[in-house]
Amino acid sequence: MPVVAPHDDTIAPSGKFSQMLNKISGQPESYARKSAYTFGKTLGAGSFGVVRQARNNTTKEEVAIKIMLKSTLNGNEQLVYDELSFLTQLKHPHIVGFRDWFESKSKFYVVTQLATGGELFDRIVDLGHFTERDASLVIYQVAEALEYLHGQNIVHRDVKPENILYLNHEQESPIVLADFGIAKRLRSSDDLIHTSAGSFGYAAPEVLKGLGHGKLCDVWSLGVITYTLLCGYSPFRSENIPDFLAEVKHNNAVIFHEKYWKHISEDARRFIVNLLDVEPTERPSIEQVLQDKWLTNIAAEHHDVDLLPSIRAGFNAKSKFKQAIELVMLQNRIKRLQELDDDDSDDTDFEDVGSSSSTGLSGWGALSSALKKTQSTGSSSSTSSEKKSSDAISALQQLVKTATQNKERVLNHVEE
Ligand SMILES: Nc1ncnc2c1ncn2[C@@H]1O[C@H](COP(=O)(O)OP(=O)(O)O)[C@@H](O)[C@H]1O
Ligand SMILES: [Mg+2]
């Protein structure tokens, strides 16, 4: 059972009858709370399952529910307990709010405040206009969330665009940081974590080296996001960990190509180079980041040059690389989901209702047929019954739809 007890006021009325039914069906007691929600469309996919929109039938609040398959957690259940534990403790305008949790025999459900405005990059690509000032507003809010976390000796470890969400569709929508799936609490301010976890592309070199990392790994990720926000592509070219470590080794990897950077201030470049120092001890703390004059002053002066055309161009120029990453990631996901072993009789958790992810889909036809092929030649357990196989396919389809937008996490959970 999860180590965190839900607040009493988050428990939906379930009734003695459904509790009794749960006992008979072998479902955990908290499963009764599932009936308090009406599930809607799929919002996103991550490492262990999908996230769906839902409505609390009593309060009518729209929420997000992260559904994680226990079978794909593979002994890493502690990750879910830790995530719940963090979410229940944290309260900040730029951190996604916790609402509830429950579990079934086969899944964990984590209910949070709904962010309807979309993931950072999807939203920006959809915008009509994006300036250096807009970028600084994003970075400032994420930095404030990190300052709050670091103040409590919590390291997020997975700061990346997919975990940065706009709360609503308004122009001035606030941003929230989500996904505490691999966050860690340090024993002291300068304590180091020795287990590597993060996302390739955003994780700091010291995380990938496995020699110990602390709060400053989040500052590095913020540097990668700042660079990418301003030009539309990643500051690094490497496609694997050894190449990446070699690339950043001499602290001269960050290049500002004139074609994409000519309209961007010197201070923005200085800010990025500062955050992307290969040596964590040379990196600014999050408090120092928040006081940097690019964030506090300079960026605000750059509100007239629209960077979107060049961000789009940068984005397209590098999209081949992105597709390659997505393919590897997709194969990993398929492998994991072939272990899908569903035991909830009335299960529709992976069936979409209404429209699918806001992110849209490229190449869905090809992916879908590749998927079916893998499915039919896949593990023997998935061919045992037609019903199960079609459930698995629809679950896979849901995941793959949104998973193509995400990068694979580099996970290594050997507990200290
Ligand atoms: N509260 C939320 N509101 C809207 N969408 C969300 C919310 N939480 C997560 N999502 C979507 O689901 C995706 C996966 O959720 P996340 O918590 O990051 O899971 P994972 O740990 O598997 O990466 C996110 O990238 C985002 O697109
Ligand atoms: Mg995530």
From TrEMBL:
Top enzyme class: transferase
GO biological process assignments: filamentous growth
Disordered: region residues: 342-393
PROSITE patterns: PROTEIN_KINASE_ATP (PS00107), PROTEIN_KINASE_DOM (PS50011), PROTEIN_KINASE_ST (PS00108)
Compositional bias ranges of the Low complexity kind: 354-384
Bias (Acidic residues) ranges: 342-352
Gene Ontology terms, MF aspect: ATP binding; calcium/calmodulin-dependent protein kinase activity; calmodulin binding
Domain Protein kinase, first and last residues per copy: 37-295
Catalytic activity, reaction form: L-threonyl-[protein] + ATP = O-phospho-L-threonyl-[protein] + ADP + H(+); L-seryl-[protein] + ATP = O-phospho-L-seryl-[protein] + ADP + H(+)
Keywords of this entry: ATP-binding, Calmodulin-binding, Kinase, Nucleotide-binding, Phosphoprotein, Serine/threonine-protein kinase, Transferase
Keyword Protein transport (UniProt): no
Sites where the protein binds ATP: K66
EC numbers, comma separated: 2.7.11.17
Family: Belongs to the protein kinase superfamily. CAMK Ser/Thr protein kinase family. CaMK subfamily.
Name of the protein this chain belongs to: calcium/calmodulin-dependent protein kinase
Species name: Babjeviella inositovora NRRL Y-12698
